[in-house]
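Researcher: We plan to redesign the surface later, but first we want a full-length starting point. Tokens attached.
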């Protein structure tokens, strides 16, 4: 039960009876006990909105005047801003952790980044040549799947052990500049963003499976059938060579704007064909 008592000067007091309210309601109503002092002058509309209305509105929102709003009473823009801040903080933390993990590979990563971004004109040819030699060697040796996996893991283990040890001696431990550190930070940030995109795609695929299972199974099965047909028509090693070559050339193509250029050209040609088809139909 809620008792409202009026005293002089006008004092509005709300208190609870412990026998009729649960503990959570009793705690909430006890916090909303407040008093409003009035003067002899006639209150104006502004005073009423600023004092009584403001206090009552704060009480109805579930917090006292001057108290910080909780998550339930924050507006949508505030929640979005808070979510963006949390996401930015998490991104910065993950980037810092990745930088710490790859600190021994800094010089090698920067060298590979310069090659992948085609800082010199002969870098694309060097990439294609090295990839071609590697796949020709695999074709000549023709190792089994187990042998190939074992050799690949062995090379990775050797690189993980030797690169952090030999990189400072080859590149020089005292030649690390602020520009290199900034570029290394950008590369780690891009890697973290790429990982987040992949996780986001996987989560969307899982959500599609739960929300629209028929569409999920139809799209997955049709995609796998298309990939299986392509793999049956093209030799698997040659197909792998094409995929690896495209992935190695992709950063340079993007850096020099070639993807945007040819994509826009293809879009213009498609639009021309559609317009010509519409004119013929008219």
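Model: Full-length starting sequence:
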């Amino acid at each position: 039960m809620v008792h409202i008592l009026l005293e002089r000067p006008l004092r509005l007091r709300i208190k609870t009876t412990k026998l009729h309210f649960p503990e959570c309601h009793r705690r909430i109503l006890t916090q909303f006990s407040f008093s409003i002092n009035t003067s002899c002058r006639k209150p104006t509309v502004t005073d009423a909105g600023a004092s009584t209305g403001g206090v009552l509105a704060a009480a109805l929102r579930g917090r006292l005047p001057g108290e910080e709003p909780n998550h339930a009473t924050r507006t949508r823009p505030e929640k979005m801003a808070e979510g963006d801040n949390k996401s930015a903080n998490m991104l910065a933390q993950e980037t810092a952790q990745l930088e710490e993990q790859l600190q021994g590979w800094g010089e090698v990563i920067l060298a590979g980044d310069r090659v992948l971004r085609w800082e010199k004109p002969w870098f694309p040819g060097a990439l294609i040549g090295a990839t071609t030699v590697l796949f020709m060697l695999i074709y000549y040796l023709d190792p089994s799947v187990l042998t190939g996996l074992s050799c690949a893991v062995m090379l990775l283990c050797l690189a993980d052990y030797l690169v952090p040890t030999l990189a400072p001696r080859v590149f020089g431990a005292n030649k690390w500049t602020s520009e290199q550190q900034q570029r290394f930070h950008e590369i780690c940030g891009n890697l973290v963003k790429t990982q987040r995109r992949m996780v986001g795609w996987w989560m969307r695929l899982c959500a599609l499976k739960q929300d629209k299972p028929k569409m999920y199974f139809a799209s997955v099965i049709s995609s796998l059938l298309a990939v299986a047909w392509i793999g049956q028509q093209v030799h698997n090693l040659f197909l792998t060579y094409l995929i690896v070559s495209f992935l190695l050339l992709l950063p340079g193509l993007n850096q020099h704007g070639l993807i945007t250029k040819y994509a826009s050209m293809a879009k213009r040609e498609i639009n021309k064909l559609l317009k010509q088809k519409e004119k013929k139909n008219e």
